[in-house]
Write a structure and sequence with these properties.
Elements lengths: L1 H21 L5 H4 L3 E9 L5 H14 L7 E5 L15 E7 L2 H9 L1 H10 L3 E10 L4
Antiparallel strand pairs: 1-3, 1-4, 2-3
Amino acid sequence: MKNLSRRNFVKNVSLATAATATFSTADAKNIKDIFVHHVYFWLKNPNSEADKSKLLEGLEKLSKVPTIRMVHIGSPASTNRSVIERGYAVSWLCFFDNLEEEEIYQKHPIHLKFVEDYSYLWEKVIVYDAIGPKR
């Protein structure tokens, strides 16, 4: 368990470092071009830790798609305000350099295999795609 905790710590530090590097001031002019893809999964068996673990396994595999610039896999936070949706089981947030890179991801064999192998786990999926505002 100690190694797992250390591994998670190193992974989180790496993600924070990557986020800082990805969105540094030097790149600020390019942030408006970033394509954000945020997916929320509701499981068919919401109380099944095995199903949630299986979905997380699939998302880890999915994170290997080469056009993904940065990824975050999450669960609902303990925050509690009227505007917060906490009914989902897992969220999948990834950033792409542009729409074209996200379209490559959608057709990539790893993504297609993820849907084929893991879609039996969820009853509902909501996707929010966003780009920077036109100025």
